[in-house]
């Protein structure tokens, strides 16, 4: 069995409705994924299954999510080794865990993406590591011009997680 991490782009189903993590776990198990478990209530899922392509797992999870919850959301999947490399690649270890985020991408970002985001940047530090965008907001992310610029239209399919969550998922993998 292989271990995978799945990140949901959104857990908001509509006005006042959010995905309950127990329901997400149950959905994964109905789809045949084993040992499903979640971390915090923001759409982070770890599970096991026979090794197969990431794209096929993403497609199965997205279809299962739409059937179960009535809404299409992007779901980004990484195998355990790739997740541990991502966690080990944080270029801003001196930052505050909740203010350092990574935008985990379905398709890797090119280095020139940093230039394109430059006009929104204030004091944030940014780096692209293995195609994912790391940002140290240094101040509250909600006070930056950069956060609203991190759209799917501009960057492609991806989802953000803070450093605390990245570390927590790595610990749950347990290697």
Describe the structure using short key phrases.
single chain, 175 residues, alpha+beta, Alpha-Beta Plaits, 2 domains, 4-stranded antiparallel β-sheet, 6 helices, 10 strands, globular
What features would you describe in this structure?
This protein is α+β, with helices and mostly antiparallel strands and 175 residues long. It has 2 domains: 2-82, SP0830-like domains (Alpha-Beta Plaits, 2-Layer Sandwich); 84-173, Alpha-Beta Plaits (2-Layer Sandwich), CATH 3.30.70. It is 31% helix and 29% strand. The protein has 6 helices and 10 strands; from the N terminus they run E-E-E-H-E-E-H-E-H-E-H-E-E-H-E-H. The protein has helices at 21-30, 54-69, 80-88, 113-117, 152-155, 163-173; strands spanning 2-8, 12-14, 17-18, 34-39, 44-49, 75-79, 100-105, 125-129, 132-136, 158-162. The strands form 3 sheets. It has a 4-stranded antiparallel β-sheet, sandwiched between helices. Strands 8-9-7-10 form a 4-stranded antiparallel β-sheet. A hairpin with a 2-residue loop joins strand 2 and strand 3 (17-18). Helix 3 crosses helix 6 (163-173).
């Amino acid at each position: 069995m292989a271990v995978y991490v799945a990140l949901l782009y959104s857990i908001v189903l509509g006005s006042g409705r959010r995905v309950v993590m127990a329901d997400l776990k149950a959905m994964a198990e109905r789809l045949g994924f084993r040992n499903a478990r979640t971390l915090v209530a923001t759409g982070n899922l770890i599970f096991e299954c026979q090794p197969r392509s990431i794209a096929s797992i993403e497609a199965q999870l997205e279809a299962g999510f739409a059937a179960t919850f009535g809404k299409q959301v992007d779901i980004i999947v990484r195998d355990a080794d790739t997740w541990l490399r991502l966690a080990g690649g944080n270029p801003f270890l001196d930052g505050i865990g909740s203010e350092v985020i990574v935008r985990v991408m379905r398709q890797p970002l090119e280095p020139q993406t940093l230039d394109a985001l430059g006009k929104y940047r204030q004091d944030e530090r940014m780096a692209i590591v293995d195609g994912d965008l790391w940002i140290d907001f240094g101040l509250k992310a909600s006070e930056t011009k950069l956060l609203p610029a991190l759209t799917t239209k501009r960057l492609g399919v991806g989802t953000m997680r803070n450093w605390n969550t990245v570390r927590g998922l790595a610990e749950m993998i347990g290697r």
